[in-house]
Amino acid sequence: MKRMHTMQWMLAGLLAAGLLAGGCQSSTMSIEGPGRTLPDDDGSPAFLDRVSSEPTVSENDAFRGLLMLVENEDATETFEDRVRALVDQGILPADWSYDADRPITRGRLAYMACQAADVDGGVMMHLVGPTRRYCLREARYLGLMSDGGTYGQVTGMEYLAVLTRLDVLRQTGQLPEILSTE
Amino acid sequence: MIRSLILLAMLASVGPLAAQAPDTPAEADPAPDSPAPATRPASGELSAKVVSVAGPAQYLDTAKDNAEWQPLRQGQVLGGQVVIRTGFQARVELLLADRGSVVIEGVAKMGLSRLGKIGDQAQAEIGLKYGRIRAKVRPEAGPSDMEVTTPVATLSVRGSEADICYLVGNRALVKTRSGRWRISKRLGARREQTAGWVRRMMLLAGQSTDSKLQSPERLRLLLWDTELFDKFGITPVERMQMVSNGQGRRYGNAPPGRLLIAPTTDPPADPPSNRQPAHP
């Protein structure tokens, strides 16, 4: 019995140490392909039309779409400029690693959607802050995104659907029935 | 006397015909080489007028060779073969030959493949690649037939109004506002027994369906939050199981929770009280 008690304390100590180490660890932002550019889309209609046919959406394209949604235009030139602009607006965190050619994941898209829509979230989001996991659950709860895993890739049409709902939610504060997810 | 009266009556009936004869020479004496007069006028192309434009919107005139995307402007008159795409916070309203109208919301791409007239009936064929439109037909302006084709189903109407939306992961495909809509969906060849079949359904005002053409009642049950009494959430399969077998009841026969979405004009009815709960 005493041995069990000791083991419990050891495990608790290890857990606390791990949490402290993880919490105090300061990760820095890394950007792969900072100079990557995109085709010169003639406004958001052309961009959305182009992305709708893509099998996956790269982070470079995804960030351009978010910038067009939030600022009505993408005035940046390179991928690094887009990341900096979204980090400055609080839509992207400053401690993630970014890759221009990497397909955007559902978790990252959910994180950006929640930040762009100023979603407060539930209890867990208040306790641990906005994470990809809980932002995805919140986005599903709000009807912004359909079911799927955090690390799943996003097709062009899925990305378009999320942006459509996000656009309406930002304008009206609610989603009409015709736009609700499955 | 009787003979004279009959003669007068015959003259009176023939008189107007004789008086009209000089005014209508083409009808009385058609040219020998001209085709036979049709009972209905030949089909003609109609035009669409841009009533209003808000936000970024572009159009492509597919009838022209090497056409390029151009910004859409208010008051513009478009032909029967155009593609229109909109951006964020956009809204375009088109008037289709004064018989109907289409409102294209933001983030949408829609094509007008045909806008013509056969006899008195105006016909419009619309293709929706993605996004949301509101189609409306004005029956008081004359007979018209509007057909909206989405990647999953075809909708046709002769005098009503509906919201049509095609987005990946969307629950509803169409929600009618007035009148009746016919919806047909061509089934795929996944099952040999149903290859080539077409599923059809009719929607009344206020009803909606999805890309699988599920019944409006079933879709309405799906719109309710069934996760309220399960803190870990339920999977889509479990949700469908509850809707199919529990008539939308919650765990423990709890009262209905809140809606996941904005309330509709016709709130769902309470489940019948004579049915047993799915999970007692």
Number of helices of chain B: 4
Average pLDDT, all residues of chain A: 85
N-to-C SSE string of chain A, H for helix and E for strand: HEHHHEHHHH
The SSE string of chain B, one letter per element, is HHEEEEEEEEEEEEEEEEEHH
Biggest sheet character of chain B: 17 strands, mixed
Helix content of chain B: 10-25%
Describe the oligomeric state of these chains in a short phrase: heterodimer
How far apart, in Å, are the first and last alpha carbons of chain A? 51 Å
Overall SS class of chain B: alpha+beta
Q: Provide the spatial order of strands within the biggest beta sheet of chain A.
A: 1-2
Could you give a short account of the major beta sheet of chain A? 2 strands, parallel
Report the radius of gyration of chain A as a whole number of Å.
Answer: 19 Å
Identify low-pLDDT runs of chain B.
5-42, 248-280
Biggest interface, residues from each chain:
A-B, 38 and 37 residues
Estimated share of beta-strand residues of chain B? 35-45%
Fold and architecture overview:
The complex is a heterodimer of chains A (182) and B (280). Chain A has 182 residues and is mainly alpha-helical. In chain A, 55% of the residues lie in helices and 3% in strands. Chain A contains eight helices and two strands. Chain A has helices at residues 2-24, 43-52, 59-71, 79-88, 106-116, 123-128, 132-142, 156-172; strands at residues 30-32, 97-99. Chain A has a two-stranded parallel sheet. In chain A, helix 2 packs antiparallel against helix 3 (59-71), helix 3 crosses helix 4 and helix 5 packs across helix 7. The radius of gyration of chain A is 19 Å and the shape is globular. Residues 20-26 of chain A have low confidence and may be disordered. With 280 residues, chain B is an alpha+beta fold. Chain B has helices at residues 2-20, 25-28, 216-222, 236-246, and strands at residues 44-45, 48-54, 57-61, 70-71, 77-78, 82-86, 91-96, 100-105, 108-118, 121-137, 144-149, 154-157, 161-166, 174-178, 181-186, 198-203, 208-209. Chain B has a 17-stranded mixed beta sheet that branches. In chain B, a hairpin with a 7-residue loop joins strand 13 and strand 14. At the A-B interface, helix 2 and helix 8 of A face strand 10 of B.
